[in-house]
Amino acid sequence: MPKITFMGAGSTVFARNVLGDCMTSEVLRNSDIALYDIDAKRLKESETILRAINEGLGGHAKITAYHGIPNRKDALRGASFVVNAIQVGLYDPCTITDFEVPKKYGLRQTIGDTLGIGGIMRGLRTIPVLEGFAQDMAEVCPDAWFLNYTNPMSILAGYMQRYTPIKTLGLCHSVQSCTSHLLRPLGMEDKMEGRKELIGGINHMAWLLDIRDKDGADLYPEIRRRAAEKNAAGKHWDMVRYDYIAKMGYYCTESSEHNAEYNPWYIKSRYPENLEKYNIPLDEYPRRCVNQIAAWARDYESLVEKSSREPHKRSFEYASYIMEAMITGVPLKVGGNVINNGLIPNLPPEACVEVPCMIDNHGVNPCYVGRLPVQLAAMNMTHVNVHLVTIEAAVTRKLEHVYQAAMLDPLTAAELSADDICALVDDLIEAHGDWLPKYTR
After folding, report:
1. Is the pLDDT of residue 308 over 80?
2. ∠ CA(391), CA(397), CA(399), 5° rounding?
3. Cα separation, 292 vs 275, whole angstroms
4. Helix, strand or coil for residue 36?
5. Residue 287 contacts by C-beta under 8 Å, 6 or more apart in sequence?
6. What secondary structure letter does DSSP report for 69?
7. Which residues have C-beta within 8 Å of that of residue 232, sequence separation ≥ 6?
8. Is 233 left (phi over 0), alpha (psi -120 to 50) or beta?
9. Active-site choice (173, 181, 204, 387)
10. DSSP 189
11. 7-31, pLDDT tens digit by residue?
12. What is the widest separation between alpha-carbon atoms in the chain?
């Protein structure tokens, strides 16, 4: 009977999907499930819903909740799999800080969880927590797989894989949803079945390098034609990524609202008309947080009732399928985040890359992708630079590396001077207070 520990179980909807998926699996349904969170109220809410799901599926799993840091080792003890979905500092106060302080400098963001000044700060306040997780896991479950879903993915997974002994795989559902998000709005859903595709790059900017129909015909010429027509026809939700197709030649995995802030071209104070032209939703992540908090307060009771009444339907999240493959040895291919080590030769070997991975009872076997088209590697490198320097800042606790990571971010550098960037970093560190470690000058 495997033990599955969910770190950040107060992320109820996500825990419901991943652990509900495990409860539907013949291989995993008898698991010992450990729920861990530092927020007692959110933890209790998740426990209530997951117990309802478990009972609705026959009550096979054993569920135990563990609250607070003193109980963390017990939550992890003997785990086979550790799923990470923590958000250090939550919406209030940390996400608010990540958005509101940069606004004073004229720097605007859409999501702020992956790159940019928001992604850097989120990474810096999360890595010390993961360091504690890794120390505990090395003591009480050294052979467990750490399945990371927390952003910024490349920074966090890269840190775990380079600086801890814990077996780590970074997972993001943008890979498995990429092609459907492209083909369906273009009226090409008939090409979905039997398609062949290759995706490689970095998290949130992995590229759909090749896509062919079941007969082997290249779909990109028609995709490029239809995407250009759709962007010319008027406003829609995916205009930035369609503009990538026009200007870079390829589509990428994560949404347009994310990618709008991953480069220096779209969010520009000098060209405010770009926001309307490319349908860019500034402050999108804080807005989502507010709406989700309100919806949770409104819908919690009905979700509990629904969880007990309707059997959980397995989602498309990778985690439960990976656990099955590792236990049974039946191979599975997923898109995973791993250390490069030559998988994409024109990105640094120490970069965290997103590539196809074969999973079985030998673990994770990343697949060679090959060199990216030069312009795509160049785009990815602007992110990798920030990832590597942010990890360096987290490991060394040197303030100069925090400044450098921010200066290397494409959007931040396009909008602010070097002196203003350093001042912004100072203000953010002060505003975050104890949510960040102390840095030396």
Report:
1. no
2. 95
3. 24
4. strand
5. 281
6. G
7. none
8. alpha
9. 173
10. G
11. 999 998 899 999 999 999 999 999 9
12. 61
Task: Write out pLDDT tens, residues 252-277.
Answer: 999 999 999 999 999 999 999 999 99
What lies within 8 Å, CB to CB, of 215 at 6+ separation is none
The two three-digit tokens of residue 71, written as one number? 């109980």
225/280 Cα distance (integer angstroms):
23
CA distance 255 to 85: 20
Report the DSSP beta bridge partners of residue 206: 201
3 state SS of 416: coil
> Hey, which bits of 272-311 come out as E strands?
none
Please confirm whether the linkage preceding 93 is cis (ω < 30° from 0): yes
pLDDT of residue 235: 95
- Tokens representing residue 80 in the block: 């086979």
As given in the structure block, the two tokens for residue 241 are 């990524």
Does the active-site annotation cover 173?
yes
Alpha carbon 416 to chain centroid, angstroms: 27
What is the sign of the dihedral through the CA atoms of 109, 114, 116 and 120? positive
Q: What whole-number distance in Å separates Cα of residue 171 and Cα of residue 176?
A: 10
Partners of 81 in the beta sheet? 4, 145
To 10 degrees, the CA torsion angle through 333, 336, 339, 343?
A: 50
Which pair of structure tokens corresponds to residue 62? 């054993």
Q: In this structure, what DSSP letter does residue 201 have?
A: E
Q: Which residues contact 90 (CB under 8 A, 6 or more apart)?
A: none
Q: Can you say whether residue 309 is alpha, beta or left, with left for phi > 0 and alpha for psi between -120 and 50 degrees?
A: alpha
List the one residue out of 150, 17, 18 whose CA is nearest residue 81: 18
pLDDT above 90 for 295:
no
Report the distance separating Cα 330 and Cα 347, nearest Å.
31
Strands 332-339 and 352-360 turn out to be: antiparallel
DSSP sequence for 118-172: HHHHHHHHHHHHHHHHHHHHHHH-TT-EEEE--SSHHHHHHHHHHHSSSEEEE--
